[in-house]
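Troubleshooting log. The previous structure file for this entry was overwritten by mistake, so regenerating from the original sequence record. Sequence copied from the archived sheet and checked twice against the printout by T.R.
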Amino acid sequence: MTPETVTPPPTSPPRPVEHLDVVVIGAGVSGIGAGHYLATELPATTFAILEARGASGGTWDLFRYPGIRSDSDLSTFGYDFKPWTDEQSIADGPRILQYLREAASDSGLDEKIRYHHRVVELAWSSETARWTVTVERTSQQTSQRIQLTARWVFAGTGYYRYDAGYTPQLPGLDKFRATAGNTVVHPQHWPEGLDLTGRRVVVVGSGATAITLVPALAQTAAHVTMLQRTPTYVMPVPRSDALGARLRTVLGDERGAALTRRKSVAMQRLVWQFSQRHPRTARAIYRRVVTRQLPAGYDVATHFDPPYDPWDQRVCASPDGDFFTAIRSGAASVVTGRIDTFDATGVRLVGGERVEADVVVTATGLSLQLFGGARITVDGEPVVLSERLAYKGLMLAGVPNLVFSIGYTNASWTLKVGLVGEHFVRLLRHMDAHGYDTARPVPADPHQPTRPYLDFSAGYVLRALDEMPKQGSRPPWTTATDYRSDVALLRHGSVVDPELSLTSLRRPSQDRFVELPAGPRICFRDTADSPGSVEDDDERREVVLLVAGLGQDLTAWPDAFVDGLVARGLRVVRLDNRDIGRSSRICAPAPGLLRQLFRRPRADAYDLVDMAADAVGVLDHLGIERAHVVGQSLGGMIAQVLAARRPDRVASLTSIYSTTGAAAVGGAARSTLWRLRHAPATTVEVAVERHLGMMRHLAGTGFPLDGDAAAAEEARARGAWERGGGPASRIGPARQIQAIAASGDRTAELAWVSAPTLVIHGDRDVMVDPSGGAATAAAISGARHVVIPGVGHHLAPGLVERLVSLIADHVAAASSSRLEGAQQ
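Regenerated output below.
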């Protein structure tokens, strides 16, 4: 029998993977807000909004229970870019849903939303600087997994599970459910057409959902009982904002709504702060208001006196007092106690009291879940949320290019959404302008004390603490609960931050880091890491350690200077001192101007010994036993301390325009002190202008800063501002000045220096008077003192070749002397 030849069916070519700039997860309040900012602020950005469900609106489309409404006023819950102009201030769900869909359409987002796209996995690759987004795409009959890639992911998924609410173990509830004619329903999945006419309803719970449901159900039910284990705070509020309506009438919708929003934000902040600062008074006010809302003789202490203070958990709103109206009318009641068991006809409490029921509504809260439950990996390693710190409340430590948006628990959710959206597009714009492709939050002190991300005592939060990220003990690792603070940080604050690493695949960063046992995280560069460097050769080279001056990062050493030393056969390591560049910011207050002028350091100030220990820590990390230490200005002082205290680690010492700490020598000229009077700069333009002015002043008559030299210095200053985190770099110099003061006169200590020493100074130095260099040389036995005519306090391009020659020859002589000594 001839075997039959079977021709395989033609195969389709693999479908190309779609690449986007941004994937937004969720088409609810957060996702629509993010989409608006991307579409309007960065119109060239490619993005899609992936929505797991078949409709937009998020919470406001999912929840369909009777009476669904906002729990805060819509002047603040609405978007900043789309003022809320409806007459209702506390608005019902259908109006909010319509508003959200109008906002999406107005921003051109309808064609950006892809429904039935559930994100199941996010996988970051540092090799490509991209996320691979695995999506489960469903239709009526099929389900398939597809993949997209994106530079960024914005998670607008909120913080709870959409597919299931939280229902605790309620004894006997299954028996109640199994009885004919009884109904059990969770508000998150309210069945369409459920008729409660003439039925007895028990609402289990006392949160915002229960407070909303009770008056709505009481309109048709025979009776509604809210069964609570502990009371909650419920405050009557106007459903409509009369003042806001008047402002819109007088000023027009846009201006009136904007002013109403500001008014409402201020009121929310005032009430919350008052409650936090004066809890006993706030509690008394609340009780007085509630007592007036209830029938005479009502047991307020049992049913409306929570065991916690106002705003330790969210205070529930009752529009026009509808909740209390239902109680006064007899259509609703409140029972407080612990459930013993449900049975066929209702529920029995531990104290023996019974509540008869035909319908049980389990308004028992939410199940928290971030990122829609998607699995997240970074370079193959799973991201465990509870092990991550939240950066500015919107990114996670060590997780690149992922932003999430979680609103306030003590104010309107959307206030935070808007600020996160604004900050996100500013960060994208900055990265595009500077050629960066990766933003990775990296805490300088990863072991800082932590507390929960949501510092809130609501049950649904407490149940999920082990599944949530943490916040740290200081900015930017704390999560603000105050809108005004977030406005300063997210709207007006710089996107550049020393603890947000911005890098590019096209321009790999030379920066390396070491976490020192004493706490600081020190950034350094090593020419052994440079392209073309040979490991064996580098290990044989003499090592030069460069320590920069006051307020200067490691880029203060010109590339030509570093390259010149390398060309002379040396390996060069340079570091950012603590409080500068990309090294740790020390968590301590900065000294005031008077303390700096009168050399009165704070009790918690670090000193030059601490800064020298940082340098030793870098050497230890690199396995370098001994280095030729070169320091300029403050760096010279650190180098001197290192040579005096750790002679075993210093092969030679070069101190460039530095001093001993003695008050009688090395002082700055009055003209220099006058230029230091300004408050720290808050913008790059001001910082660069001041820096160039100071450098021109310090340059010296023989090496003026002009032409190409000025252009190069301006570029370096801008780069240093960027590396140092912009405004975050302002406080470091003050603390470094304090370190000098805390170290006092070190003249006697310099006698301990045994390493061959070269002291270099310019005779036109108006920052550190030349007498400082002379005193340094005099204090160190055998030191060589070189004074260069016309030189000020600046590593001028025209000076580089001379300095390289002096230092390289000094290193060679010291090495030769040490070798001869070892041979003897």
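Residues 1-6, 8-12 have pLDDT under 50 and may be disordered. Archived copy saved in two places this time.
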